[in-house]
Structures are given as structure tokens and as C-alpha cells.
Amino acid sequence: MAVDDELWPPFGPAAAFREQLARGRGRPGELPGRADHQRDQGRGRGRQASDLRGRPGSRGHGDQRGRGRPGSGLSREEIVDVAIAIADADGAESVSMRKIAQVLRAGAMSLYWHLAGKEHLLELMLDALMADMVVPEPTGDWQADLRVQARSQRQVLLRHRWVIDFIAARPPLGPNTLRNLDKSLATLDCLHLDTETAINVLQTVNTYVLGAVVRELGELRTQSEQEEWVTSETEVHSKLEQWRSRLEATGMFDHFLRIIRDDVDPDAEETRDARFEFGLDAVLEGMKAKLAKEAG
Fold it and tell me: How many Cα atoms occupy the beta-carbon half-sphere of 247 within 13 Å?
């Protein structure tokens, strides 16, 4: 059992896995994840498993052929790495023990030496990606430090789009997440805030980033759908003009029509970074003003 297992909270899949090992139930066939494995036998879609072996950032999966033995050469890091690659390629719903085992050229049951089941795997996947987030060492400029962190969080979420479906509802409390939170709180030490206020500051920034990413992902989906039925920019302009004429005829939407008249595309791909920065600045500057008001 990895030392990091001890850093997870005393509840949830990781805690259940620790307890089973402590009770001497470390054989794969006795873990509750076995039922998950059996259901997974009939699942799996999308990209062929063999295509995922060369995912950038993977840690070398080799030719391990474990058949349920703890010394089979597999590691939890490899399992999680492959699971993330599958989710990135085909969505989190496509992750299965069977598909992971195919990529690793291992017996599916050998994975259960390292995992309690799919819920445990999902928590490990989410926490592993938290290690990709940049949380700078405190510089004394809390706004600059939180800005770096927010930008990095956005990029991680956009690279791994499936994460947004889980991170808001069930943020992991694994070692990487805890390290990030600890460093983020240290960033605010220079403000001498009470703990509750410091948490509120971090949650406000985090909520903004999550909301901005949800918006961006929606824009990306809409853009992809439009590309399927729009044949040219001329066609787009023509359809917009027809729509504008119909709206103007009602005399009801003058403020909205300014968007079309001024040729402002609120979903434009080229302005996404600028729009994110505008909102982030507003959040941080508003936070600064609020904290100063409460302190004064």
C-alpha cells in the first residue's frame, strides 16, 4: 500500500481499501470492486486500447502480464495514467478495468491489488490531475499568485474536459489536492485573514474558474455543432442579417441588437483568453476592495 493512501480522508473508497488490506483481505477476488470488474467485461468503446500506450506523459507500461499477483510489475501510477488517457480520448464513462488491463497487457483482476473499485479509481484520477496544477510558492503578492493558479486550473480542465463533470460535485481530498490547498492558504498569509475568510476567498476564485470553464466547454460544443451545418462565412452573415431584420421588426430588442450591429461575438474563440482574464481581474480586484473595506 502506497504511503499516500494514508493522506486520504477516513471515509470513501480509499479508506475502505485501507481497511480491507488491514484486515488481510488483499486478494483481488475478495475486493468489492470485483462486481465492477464483472460488469466492465461487457463494456468499452471508442479508441482501441493499444492506441493509448504511447500517451504523452505516460510512465512506461512495458509488457507486464500480471494475473492477479501483487508482484506482477503493475503500479497504481500506471493504472491511473492509462485510465486518464482513456477518459481524455473517449470520456470518463468509457473507462473500464477491462480496457485498462488491455492497454497494460495485464490480467484485469491484477488491477484490484491496487484499487478497491471504479469509485476509488475515479478519486485517484482526479487527484492525479491536481498535481498538474501550478500553485506557486507564496510571493507576498496574493493576487498574482492566485492569478497563476487560476490560469493553470483552467488549462488543466480544458485539457481534460471530462473532469468538469466530477470536480464540482466530488472534489477529491487526496494528497495532491491537499498540498494545493495548503499552498493556496499559505498564499493568503500576508493578509492575516481568519480561516473562514481565507477559505471564502479561495472558493470564490475557484467558483469563477469552474464557471468560466463550463462556459468555454459549452462554446466549444456549439462551435463544433455549427461547423457541421455552416458551409461558409457568407452563409453565416446572411443568416444573421435575416435574423436581425426579424428582430428589428418587432421593436422589442434594441439593446440585444447592439451586439449584432457592433459585430460583437460573445463566444468568439479568439477572445476566450481575454474574457477569462477580464472576469478574473474583476473577481480579484473586487475581493481586494471587499477585504480592505472589512479591515478598515
Answer: 15
Q: Tens of pLDDT along 186-207?
A: 999 999 999 999 999 999 999 9
Q: Which amino acid is at 40?
A: D
What span, in angstroms and rounded, lies between the C-alpha atoms of 272 and 247?
A: 27
What are the strands, taking DSSP E only, across 119-275? none
- Whole-angstrom Cα distance, residue 53 to residue 81? 10
**What sign results for the dihedral spanned by CA atoms 258, 261, 266, 272?**
negative
Question: Could you tell me which residues come within 8 angstroms of residue 294 by beta carbon, excluding any fewer than 6 positions away?
Answer: none
Separation CA 184–CA 189 (nearest Å): 9
- Tell whether the model's pLDDT for residue 27 goes beyond 60: no
Amino acid found at 195: T
Segments of the chain assigned to CATH 1.10.10.60: 3-129
Burial class from Cβ neighbours inside 10 Å (0-12, 13-18, 19+) for residue 135 reads buried
Full-model pTM: 0.79
Residues forming CATH 1.10.357.10 domain(s) in the chain: 142-229+265-295
Instruction: Classify domain 3-129 by CATH architecture.
Output: Orthogonal Bundle (1.10)
Buried b (16+ CB within 10 A) or exposed e, 158-181: eebbbbbebbeeeebbbbbbbbbb
Q: Three cell numbers at 125?
A: 484520477
For the cut 90, the answer to whether the pLDDT of residue 209 exceeds it is yes
Dump the DSSP string for 73-123: S--HHHHHHHHHHHHHHH-GGG--HHHHHHHHTS-GGGGGGT-S-HHHHHH
Of 88, 250, 112, 97, nearest to 162 by C-alpha is 88
The topology under which CATH files domain 142-229+265-295 is: Tetracycline Repressor; domain 2 (1.10.357)
Contact between 28 and 68 under an 8 Å Cβ cutoff? The reply is yes
The Cα–Cα gap between 58 and 77 comes to 9
